[in-house]
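Worked example

This section walks through a single chain of length 335. The input is the sequence exactly as stored; nothing has been trimmed or padded.
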Amino acid sequence: MSKEYNITLIPGDGIGPEVTEAAVHVIEAAGVNVNWEVVEAGEKVIEKYGTPLPDYVLNSIEKNKIALKGPITTPVGKGFRSVNVALRQKFNLYANVRPIKTYKGIKSRYDNVDLVIVRENTEDLYAGIEHKIGDYAAESIKIITKDASEKIAKFAFDLAKNEGRKKVTAVHKANIMKFSDGLFLNTVREVSKNYEEIEFEDVIVDAMSMKLVQTPENYDVLVMPNLYGDILSDMGAGLVGGLGVVPGGNIGKDIAVFESVHGSAPDIAGKGIANPLATILSSVMMLRYIGENEAAEKIDAAIAKVLEEGSKLTVDLGGSASTKEFTEEVIKKLK
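Given that input, the structure is written out below as tokens.
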């Protein structure tokens, strides 16, 4: 009997239930034995609980230590915090990991991108320390600490080492923000000395934006503070086909939440045409995290075959297949 894993499943809003269901079916077909604890969060629970993130969701994640999450809508202008930000801060999920990889069969301007963006997830301007100054000004405070910078630097170098990657690039704006980004850069530079086998360089964030567009194949692992990571990770997704084809993981000391990074797409919810690829790829990241590497490789290879053959692609990828048809084709390739 294979090992059983207890994992929290948060279907989310909009197309979330459809794409997470697809991922569950693929994991099951790959032979991984998961006991899913399904908990609801997001817009649908606000009326009942007064929050998009009830305590039972937090309790489930704390108990199981691993979660797979669908997209959740943050209501605009209603005073609710982003569920994603709240989860990251509650469980100190300090590393946001976004693999950026080209697949044959997905239209993009590049055919050889394979990099990982590692984003510090808990501080910077996203610490949420801001206030108004009268009616005509506002102030937001950027927090960078040595502790958080050191943790994310070690994470990035360990990831590079474990995945056989050759280079880590620190992205910053230390030429202007000499104290905050300067602290980040100096800390990463110090950590790099413990990984002599891995090349280290640093690039200013605006130059990095240009270089990512010009020569993305030159980069391996990029590590950066929160705001730059948020921006460049979406830019990276654009290099390889968009948010619908890119997975994501939020990883802490002993808790991890894996999620696709696209929105909840309420306009197509329930129509059966949502692309589940990003969520399935996020579940592949999750399987690697729990040590189910063989199943992860099988799913990844099956996805590559489906994309390259191109006969069962969803509408956004240029095909006409439904969510179910795409998922069934991936499962077929597993066998």
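What to look for: The first strand starts at residue 4 and ends at 10.
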